[in-house]
Every structure is written in C-alpha cells, then in structure tokens.
Description:
Elements: H1 2-5, E1 11-16, E2 19-26, E3 31-32, E4 41-56, E5 61-64, E6 68-72, E7 78-95, H2 96-109, H3 117-125, E8 130-133, H4 137-148, H5 151-169, H6 187-202, H7 210-216, H8 221-232, H9 236-254, H10 259-265, H11 271-282, H12 286-292
Antiparallel strand pairs: 1-2, 2-7, 3-7, 4-5, 4-6, 4-7, 6-8
Amino acid sequence: MLAEFLADRGDWVQVMPGAQACLFSLAEGQLALPLRLEPLHFEALFCLAGTVALTRRDGSVLTAGARQVLILTGLSGLADARMGSPLEGVLVAVDARGARESLKTICDLLGNLSLDTGQVRQWMADRGGCTVEGPTDWSRVVFANLDRLPRSERARWCVWKSVELLYLFSNPGNQAADTAPAPALEREVVRRLAEIRQYMEEHLAEPLTIPFLSRQACLSATSFKKCFRSLYGLPVHTWLRRRRMEQAAELLRGSSLSVLGVAQSVGYGSASQFTAAFRRQYGITPAMYRKNA
C-alpha cells in the first residue's frame, strides 16, 4: 500500500535481500492511499510527522501519528486509507519470500534466535492485518536513536528494528505491544461514539471535555474513554489534539487567517499555546509551516 504510493516519491535503499526502506517527506495534503498489498508482503511505517488513518469496514478508525510505527500485513478488512501531510518518516517494505534467507542469517548470528513468522502472521490476522506500535518503551527508544542517526543510516536502523519487532510479535511473552485484541463493542455504542466523533469534528473551536462528551454518549466517563480508544485507536484528548492540528494545518495552507485566528478556530485561546502544540505535532512553528506551504 504505502510502498506503491511512495514508489516515485522518496529515496529508496535496498538494505538486504527482500527488504528495502524509503526515506520520504511529503506535503501534498490529504490523499487517499491505494488499498493494495501483495501476499506475503509486510510494511512498517516509522512515522516522524503527520498521520495515516485507516478506516475499517466496521467503521472503526486506526490512526498512526508521529513517533509511532504502523505495521501492515493485510488490507482485506479496510475500507479506506488516507495520509495527512506533511507526512514524514521511513517506510520498510519486506517481501517475506525474498527475505527468508536474510532473516535466517540474522537469527543464526544471534545464537539461533527463534523467529516464528507463522506466529507473526496469526498475531497480525487477529488485528485485521494492521496495528500501531507506540507509544511504548520500545518505540520511544527506537525514535530517540533514529533522531541521532545520520540520514544515511536511518534506512538500515529501521529495517533492523522491523526485524526486532517481528521477533517480539512472534513471542507472546515478550511483545512490545499489548497482545490482547480489543474487545468488540456493541453496535449501539459504536453508533453513539461515531456521532460523538462527528460532533467533535464539527466543534473543534469549542471546549470539549470528557464529562460533556461522555454525557452526550450516555456513557460513564471511564467507559467513554475506554470505548473511544478501543474503537479509534487513540485516547480522546490525543485524537482531539491531532484533529485540531490537522485542521490548523489546512487553515494555514488555505486561508488568510492570522496564526491567532487559526488558533482560535481550533479551540486555542492563545497563539503561544497553539504554537507549542503545533510544534509538537509537526516539528515546526505555524508561521514556518505556512511559509513552506
């Protein structure tokens, strides 16, 4: 999926047989991604900025953002996939057949390390072929070291970390991510949460609190937070902050509003608070983002 999209948009490096990586930085805006991934192919996006949102056929959304790793092995359960720019990161694309000998060599060098690819496939199948890793202790270390490396070494680092992640997924007792599949939500709860999500989208400029939103959803605050995270893959405040920043980025690109005007349009009372939040999301100030756009 992402490898096809980035075929002529980034700098590709063949790291080892069956595994290549692409270093890229995009600024095209919201774009649909092709829902195609060859059998026995694996993709891992080490996201440095921006977002990728995957909409499942049941209506739930899985979002990967900065300092997270999006892992893909199958797309049959997806209805839509979109990137929100500026999207920047390192994509690792693996052909399991071509990489078989490379993985065996790595495992042999590490003292006959056991990497059960069948277990990995089953673990990913239980999650519909896509999952997001982070923020966890593992992902924090990965990105902290990625920041320190020169650009020439980042592709190799991410391929190595992808192999490490496969190993963790193949050993249930040592997985980096929570291995328990999210519990299925009742259809009525999904419907209510979808309505609340739409309400949040339409009222980004207003103060939106957990007590208020949970009352609107007819759920306790605890149940609301738990169910929202299960359905959309992010805590409520994290999802809301990202949507506000994405909306702010669109306004900076396509409107003549001042930075303060943009801040107020997405729920921030001061330009300084907004600038700090925007920098955390995109790595640059709103003024610099507008200049680059």
